[in-house]
Amino acid sequence: MSMNSPVTEQSLLIFAHQLTRIYPMGRTDVIGINRLDLQITTGEMVVLKGDSGSGKSTLLSLLAGLDRPTGGQLTVAGVDLAAATESVLTRYRRSVIGMVFQNFNLLPTLSVMENACLPALLAGLAHHQAMVRAEDLLRWLGLDHRKDHLPAQLSGGEMQRTAIARALINEPQIILADEPTGNLDSRSGETVIELLAELNRSRQRTVIIATHSNLADATATRLIRLKDGEITGLA
Amino acid sequence: MRTKRSIAVFRNGFESGPTTKVSRGDEVPPENKRTSGKLRFCVILLYVALSAASNSNFEAVAQQSDAGYLAVTGPCQLQFPTDHGAHPGYRTEWWYYTGNLQTDRERSFGFQLTIFRRRISPPDALKTWPDSASRWRTQQIYLGHAAVTDIAGGRHIFAESIARGALDLAGVRQSDGRTTVFVNKWSIDIRPDLHRLQATAPDFSLDLELHPVKPPVLHGDRGYSRKGDAAERASCYYSFSRLQTAGRVQIGEMLFEVSGSSWMDHEFSTASLQPGIGGWDWFSLQLDDGTDVMIYLLRQDDGNVHPASSGSLIDSGGGSIHLTASDFTVGVLDHWESPQSETTYPAAWAVRIDRGAIDITVGASLADQELQTAATTGVTYWEGSVDVSGTAKGRPVAGKGYVELTGYAGAVEALQ
Amino acid sequence: MKPIVLFFRLFVWFSWRYFMKHRVRALIVIAGIALGASVFTSVRLSIHASLESFSRSIDLITGRSDAVLSLPGGRVPEDILPAILRQPQVRHASALMTTYVKTTGDDADSFLLIGFDPFSDRPFRRWQVQPTDLAQDSSWLGLITDPFTLLLSEALARRNGWQVGDKVTLVHDRENTVFRVLGVLKPEGLGLAEGGQVALTDMATFQEFSGLPGVVDRIDLMLTRAASDIDLEALRRQFADLLPPGVQITSPSGAKESGRTMIRAYQLNLSVLSFASLFVGMFLVYSLVALNAASRRHELAVMRATGASGNLIFVLFLAEGALLGAGGWLAAIPLSALVVKYMLHGVSQTISTLFVRVHVDTIILEPWELLLSFAVTVLISLLAALQPAREAMLVEAGEALTTSRLQRSRKDTIGKLAVVSLLLIAVAVPLSRLPGYAGIPLAGYVAILSLFAGFALLAPWSLQRFGAALSPKLHRLAGVPAYLAGRYVRDSGTRTAISVGALITAVSLFTALVIMIHSFRETVQLWVYQTVSGDLFATGKMSAVNQFRDSIPDRVREGLQQLTAPVEPVHSRRFVLKSGDFSYELDLLDLEAFLRYGQFIWVAGEPATVQPRLIDGEGVLISEVFANRTGLAVGDRYLAQVQQSVVDLPVLGIVRDYRTKGGVVFYDRSAFTRSYVDPSWSTVRLFFRERPENLETALAALRREIIDRCGSHLDLIAGEELRGAILRVFDETFAVTFVLLLIALSIAALGITTTLAVQVLERLTQFNTLVAVGAAVRQIRATVFWEALLLIVAGEIAGLLCGFMLSYLLIFVVNVQSFGWTFIYSVNWKALAASLPLIVGTALLAALPAIRLIFKQPPAMLLRDR
Prior knowledge:
The structure holds 3 protein chains of 3 kinds.
Chain A: E1 12-25, E2 28-41, E3 45-49, H1 56-63, E4 71-76, E5 79-80, H2 86-95, E6 97-100, H3 112-122, H4 127-140, H5 156-168, E7 174-178, H6 186-203, E8 206-210, E9 222-227, E10 230-234
Parallel strand pairs in A: 3-8, 3-9, 6-7, 7-8
Antiparallel strand pairs in A: 1-2, 1-4, 4-5, 9-10
Helix pairs in contact in A: 3-4, 3-5, 5-6
Chain B: E1 21-22, H1 30-39, H2 46-50, H3 58-64, E2 92-102, E3 108-119, E4 140-150, E5 155-164, E6 170-175, E7 178-183, E8 186-191, E9 194-200, E10 204-212, E11 217-218, E12 224-226, E13 234-251, E14 254-269, E15 277-287, E16 292-300, E17 310-314, E18 320-324, E19 328-337, E20 344-353, E21 358-364, E22 370-372, E23 380-392, E24 395-405
Antiparallel strand pairs in B: 1-5, 2-3, 2-14, 3-4, 4-5, 6-7, 7-8, 8-9, 9-10, 10-13, 11-13, 12-13, 13-14, 15-16, 15-24, 16-17, 17-18, 19-20, 20-21, 21-23, 22-23, 23-24
Chain C: H1 2-21, H2 23-62, E1 67-70, E2 76-77, H3 80-85, E3 90-103, E4 111-116, H4 142-145, E5 149-152, H5 154-160, E6 167-171, E7 176-184, E8 198-202, H6 203-210, E9 215-216, E10 218-223, H7 232-238, E11 248-250, H8 253-295, H9 297-305, H10 310-354, H11 367-393, H12 411-433, H13 442-491, H14 494-530, E12 536-540, H15 554-561, E13 567-579, E14 582-589, H16 591-597, E15 602-604, H17 607-615, E16 620-623, H18 624-630, E17 637-642, E18 645-655, E19 663-668, H19 669-675, E20 683-688, H20 695-710, E21 714-718, H21 719-733, H22 735-762, H23 764-772, H24 777-819, H25 829-853, H26 859-865
Helix pairs in contact in C: 1-2, 1-10, 2-8, 2-10, 2-11, 2-22, 8-10, 8-11, 8-14, 8-22, 10-11, 12-13, 13-14, 13-24, 14-21, 14-22, 14-24, 22-25, 24-25
């Protein structure tokens, strides 16, 4: 889906029904998400709130196709994630989702530019095209002077901006951010939230942020509160 | 005189490989020419040939030739059948058969079978032998050359054989008036009224019975055949100029019953070619009026024919007259250039012999009867079947024969 | 094309840069692989060179013959040559004689003198004389015209500085004879036979020189095209009337095949041994790739999360293995160039001593061998990377989200591994019982591999048990660090176990070879003192190198009969015969006298009852090697053609014998004379009837008397000297083996270095936590030291166990099937007791770099990095 294509406000992007994820841990089971119903339409900016262990990350990884539900239905952008094969999931991750992590998860041996390019290359884009896209993004993110640096040489905010570039390179419909500000000082954190809101506003990306900070509350179109794997409140 | 100097100029060692050469061979090892060039200057018959590694041993050999070898200096007092046998006191000797044969269906063949004997060290060298010498020890070696010309098939195939004259591998045996000359698996068996030739090579074989039609002819002066200026530049030389022949020729898998006419020479000597003689042309011709002709021309380096060149004219009854150089003329009518050796040979001649009122042309029955013994001897010469036509005593005659042309490709052989 | 480019780009970004970042680890692994690969390559190349040299020499001497006439144990009368030649089936025939000769002078090397007829030999063998400028008759024709002339190979002429025209004195068992050098051969054809240690002479000269008129060693035949299809059996029937009794027609390839078979068995043994080094190197690759996979687990998850497929990850890690293998192979090339020089000498020496004379001075860079070593190296590296790559590919993208997720327990894997490994070990025993194929103990090698793999795979489980059992005791004995170390060893799982697997392999190889070589040497020593007994051995000059094929000259024999010294002679005549393609010796000796002074080492048969029958000539004794090669057992009949006689005797017993070139059959010499023909004798050993007070003096006097009576045409060697020489040859033979062993051990040490270093690096945070909770740095170092010690000791114990099993396989399976002999099993406890602690020490030294790594960086920095 191209960045500039018009998106209907009403189109349903994420549909979850009775979504459940249970982790077997030794002799007992740990509940990640329990019978959750959720619908998100294109263009929303959703903030998932909740304490540690509330199920935020579990929901996010299910949405990202990084994990599979143990029960219920989950369809994102028309892909049935509960039934998808590993290769469908891989393709889904490449094209539908852009991920931003709390601890950035940049590959230490790759430069800023290379980290940003990586998903595009993995998706089969030619190297020079990936470079052009990455340069655009890095310029937009204010990182063009850092593009040949390795992650270890960057500040936290720069690392997270690199991660955002990486998340955007394949022009995904959905940006998923897992505590994107968790490892950042407050100023950098604000910048990151600002960037995500900007993406949502001017580029019509659907953005879902899992966080327990309040930095993103103001920009959210919807707030979802989770506790013990269940939705306890909406705003 | 038919000296086949070509016999065996061995290179410095042996390449193992088939000893049969088909003259269509398309490659000439470069060494071939080099060796031949060398030989131009070391004109000692077989000995040189056999010791090709050094071309400087001419002097040594010349001295050795005094070291107990017998020399031919006058009429040979040949007695048969004893003199069909070997004359080991002389350095060189050969039994030489050529002939023209055909099948019932007129398919024509030429053949050649020669066994040479060579004494490789002088009698004096016996003194260096150990007291109880091995039975392998000998001073005599034997070489055989055999060739078949398949005129219709356009093929000329050649093979050779070599062995020491010891341990029954090669030699000459005589008993009960019968002489057997043999080298390895080849043999010539001479009885009073029958010569039997047997030779087997990988690609062909000969098994022929020859019946003399005429008695032996002693060439020159009672067999004393001059080959140069000095008295001892000579050989003892006699021929059976016409032998009725029948037998089998096998080429590859094909066996032919053949009959025809052959010629036999037996010659021995000690002396080598004299300096200045570069080669010779030798003719043995059998005319259909019963006449046989032998002529050899010793070609000098200056282009002239040496006065010792001579021949014999044998009538149908076997009577012969000696021809001196002034009795005949030989003019070359045509040439042929060998594609393999790039040597040019005469290929047709006009021969006039005044004393027999013979005026004939002689031409090769197959152009390519060149022998290139590159792998083993490195010598190249032409020896082949010829056709004859013309007149004798005013009447038309035809005939067949054999011609040998040496010294054209550089390798010289002449008794110096 | 594009996927490949992408793959390489990713490989550079992801793997190559990581290697570069941790290049010391990668270099150590590459060094280990390089060592293994260079050993493997140079061993292969050396044997290949020997094999080639042998085959080439045989081919050059065999020439283009289709069949060979020979008389077992004797020579062929030359008279039959012309008759054979004139058979319609025969195209060419050439007689040949060969003998090893040398020039006067003690340090002169022997070379092969070939006697032949240059004319009839012409179709068979190729040779050329070098042209020379000397104005003398240098032609080869001089071989025939001039008695006692020869042509030298270029190598021989160059080494001795001989030139055309020089006089050379050759030694034979009769007289020394002066030869004149007629020419020098070009280095081609026959001029290259025997590695160029060859000279040609005319048959007449050869017979006169060797005093063997009327006979030739063999007659080579080339058959006509029509006859070349018929088998030798048919030819034998057709020639039956022509051939004197005993003369046989054999295929010329027989000698070559039996020689090649023996060398191949040796090649395989050494290849397997050198492969062990590569095998040990495989553990290095495994541990590094596994480490990379484990420590980059999180990155892998990120890769997966950003769209990399599992297969891509799998191939990336396989490629890491391949890169290590290829790098190791590349590094092995210059290393091989060094190693091969040593190997070539050792290997060709051994082959010459054990099997057939070879002369090798150059290595041929055989592309096939290089390719093989490349393929083997990369393949084992790939294999080693396979398991870690599979693990890496299974990393789930979801792990990217979590900073620490609990590692799933691997207990079940370890348990499963233990079962598999026990199965592998168990299967080694029945496998080893399978018969060998064509002298190759394939099943034996598979059993060995299975044993190695089994013990290596058992390592995780046994470490777990070992750690669990030891840590409480260690706590009491050596305090907390030792306790922690024990716990770590218990819980460290597969990864630690892998380097222990390397150690197990190396130690077991070491143990097994120490035991095997010791057993071998002890048995050989026993054999040497019992069976190679005697105070003085006398044999004709050059007789030994010519395999004692000729009896001693009459003059010498008469001289020896007149000895006045108080000695008893035991005469012996040896015939080299063939059974199928396999050469052996028939040793006819004076058994009655021999058994008074010496004895056999019996494998089968009751000495007390058999010996009298043996002395009476009722039957033969066969060596173990002969029995194994032919399948003959006690009670079977031994059949052989010896010269003109057909020998048919029962086998009375089987004895050990370690003479190197094939098996032996013993029979009483006087009984042989009675039943067949007087074989005369070629060797005599003299026993003093009474032990002289001063052996040295008595021996010196005896030598003097012999020289006075027989002249100097005897080689005399004191029994002690001979026995010493045999044992020295034995020791030299195993020199190569020990080098291979040392290399395998050093690769294992490298493995320990990397594993421990890696583990230390991985646990730096953990160590810092320990420091934070009050551990002293010294204590943490002690912990790591204890870990190393525990791992090494565990590896040694398992290695010892494996080694004992392996030694059994080597002695009773591999040796029997490869060489036909066994030894009396004997463990060199002393050597093991001395060397095993040494290995522990060395391995601990290898652990030092890892221990020193701890707190090389200030703890704070490490903590911040996390």
